Structures are given as C-alpha cells and as structure tokens.
Amino acid sequence: MADKTSFDEIEKFQMFSSLGDSEDRNILGSYLTEVAKGHTLKFKNSDFSDTALGYKHIIDDILETPGLQDSIQRHASLREHVVKELVTHIVEISETTSSPPPAQRQKKKFTLPFGMRPGNSSGDKGKSSKSTFSKIMESVRKMLGGKMQKRQDDLRKKLSDNASKFDKSQQLISQLMDHLGLGFEKAKGKWQSTGFEVLSRYDRLLEDEEMLKELVDLLGRYASAELEEEREQLEEISIQPFRRNFTHGKESLIGVHESDDLSQILPAEAALLGNEKTELIFYKKFVEHKLQTFELKAEDTPPKIDQGTQTQKTSTKEDVMGPVILCVDTSASMLGKPEQISKTLCFAIMKMALENKRACVLFSFGASEQEIRKIDLSNLQDGLEPLIQFLSMSFSAGTNAGPALHKAIDEMQTEAYSKSDLILITDGKIPEFETSVLHKLRKAQSKDSRFFAVTFGAENAPELKPFDIVWKYRASRKDSLLEFAKKIKKLKRKK
Predict the structure, then answer these.
(1) Can you give the pLDDT at residue 290?
(2) 2: part of which helix (H) or strand (E)?
C-alpha cells in the first residue's frame, strides 16, 4: 500500500482530530494545505479563532526554524515530510493539553506570510513585525512549557537536521549522477518529488555524508584516470605520409564546367572584371560556383596487389554489445576502503553500460541465498531509487559467491540478458564453487557470455580460474585506477 500523502494526513486531521471544533480544524487544515503546496500564505490572524490561532503560532514557530524554509521551498518531498510532522505534532498537543494554547492578538491585524522571516521588511515596520512575532513565540513557548516545549524543540532540531542532510545528500548525489553522464538537471523534477521519500528509507545513506564524499572523490580520480588513458591512446597514434604517383597532370583537359576555380576560368569570365557594370555579375557567379572554367583530370596509378599472398580476416560470429551483470561481494571483509573502491569500479562499469545503452543489473551477495539483492541499474534516468539502493548496499555479510552466480547465470538465460558480460568484484576470499555452478558457467560461455573478475586480494583465488579474465586491483598503487580504466575497454564489444 502506498504511503499516505500530506494531503491525506491533513484531511484525516480535519475529519477526525479532537482539536477544537470543525471550524478550527478546517482553517488549520487549509493553512497546512497551502504550506504543503509551497504557496505564499495570505492568511490573517483575524481569520482564526483564539484556539486555532494558538496552534497556528506553534506551526509558524516550527516553520521559522533556521534553514528549514529554504529547503522545503526547493524540495516538494521534504515539504511533504515536514507537513506530516506538523500534523502529528499539533494533534499530539491537542490530545495532551486540556486547554487550548492562548492566542495573543494585536490591535492591528498581523500576519507573517510563509517564506517571509521576521524583520525582512525595511524601516520601523520590519522592527515592529520582528518584535511582535518574538512576543507571540515567547507566549507560545510559555504556554507549552515542560514536556511539550521539549517536544517542540526536538521537532525543530529534527526537521532542521533532516533538511541539512537532505541538501548535502542532494549535492553529492547530483555529482555522482554527473559522473554517470546522466546530469542532475535531467532528474531534478524526480528528485524534488521523491528525493526525501527515497532517502528516508535508506537511513545509512542519509546519515553517512563522509561515505558519499569519499565516493565522489574516488570517482573524480577515476575520471582523471580515464582522461590520462585517452591521452596515452592519442600519443600512440602515428601518422604516415602517403604519396601518389600521377601519370597525368593538370594538362589532361576533358572539357568545360561550372565552378569557382579562379586558376582555370575562361578568358570571357575574367573579362567581366574589366567593367564596373559586369563586375557584380562576376562576383555573383563566383559565390554560386557558376564561373565557366576548364575541367581537368588527374589519374593515379593504383598499387599492384599480389593476389596470391593477400588475406582478409573475416568474422563468422556477430559481435554485439551485450548486457552487463555485476556481482558484488558485500562480506564484512569488504567493509571500509574495499567498499569504496568496489562502488567506484561499479560506477565506472555502470557508466560504460549507460553510454553504450547496454542493460545493467547488479547482484550483491553475502553468505546465503537470502542475502542476495538484485538492483536494476538500467533505468537510472527514470528514477533515483536504484541509485540510492546501490549506494546504500551494506557490506557486513558473509561470503559465498556460488548462489549469486547461480542467479546471475539464470538471468543470462533470459532474452534481455543473453550474451552478457558478468563482472564479479570480490576480495577473493570465496569458497570453492559447486560443480553445478561451474557447469552452468561453461554452458553460458559456450553461448558467448563472458566472465570477468576484479579482486583485491594478494593472490588470485584458484576458484576464479574458469573466468575469462581476472584483474587484480592494488589500491596501494597510484596508477591502479588508470589500469582499471584501460581494462574496462575490454568490456566494450564492437557494435
């Protein structure tokens, strides 16, 4: 069942809450609805009863939390979260407090529009608004007192922290999407509407800002390694001059044609330049490539080919861009730096797959079949959830690659993932594969699927011998990312 929206919560509050009478709930519900929509509030204090006005001041006090308003104006999903918390908060106060919050009115009608902070106005008017608002908030705090005031302060701090974390996460994830070539602007609307909702389900990512920063840093270094690898390729290109031997020069006249070749114009065309009245005609014909010119022909002598010794290499199999299947070891021994590196390498492979429009799916595995998670990384343009799932992978399980390979090879039997490239990323501490797994692996290889492995261990595990290629990644070497940038080229099959 889908989560209730803030509008559902507001409607429920208006119909069933014990706060005040129906008129009080309706005006407060309308106020919260405008907040949920991100509109500038045009309500006046005189629109509220004494009871409803007291609760409005409580809502305003929370909305005035430093940094909160800017964030909820930018992000619809964060605003949705804040409004739900506000509804819950005022309902709890109404159920806990026997008497309604006192409302402090002014002789003049006072309103603080949503999005306008106290003191924003210029001159004495701004100072008066700030002073009045401060007095109202002070009366609200006195009214709340004790436990309810602590709850109010705790909610302000919680919402402020969530807004700050959400903003930082957005900035870092936008950089990750840029590394993948997706561009955050393309997904901005999706982020605004679903970003906080998705992030709130993945607490580790929302809280672990340092993990994201390290990943962005590693990806930056990988991007530099890619550029270095491209420079090396360019340096290897050599240009050899080619000279033809002509048997005939420009003296081989074959006729007259229209062109803009001034060196071969007919005398009649050149004569147009001798008269001011016809000079423009010459320029017009020149621009239009319609000057009458001699047409010359040059012939070259084709090189002689020894038909008896020349051979041509042909391919009997169609070489296509197959899908990519990632199998990532999430055992506890991968925790820390290996986790960051493995995610960086996954990003590099994901980027290559997206650039070449190749389907890409990831299996993370632990010690048992129950610890296998499947994430479809082919549709990152259409939503952030697969990316968040990938970033939130937990590296604390046991190690057994066999069940994951079973599932991955079963995926290869589907039409969408036939002729796949499978890449296993592990520290190499894996049990021996069962005979049934090896049998399925060789059968997949016979159908043009390829198996690669990237390891972090000191020595390659003997269990990986059936794989087509095993790459050893040495984090201690400065050029290790450059080496991987070169190795990944092997995944790029010809179209």
Answers:
(1) 85
(2) none
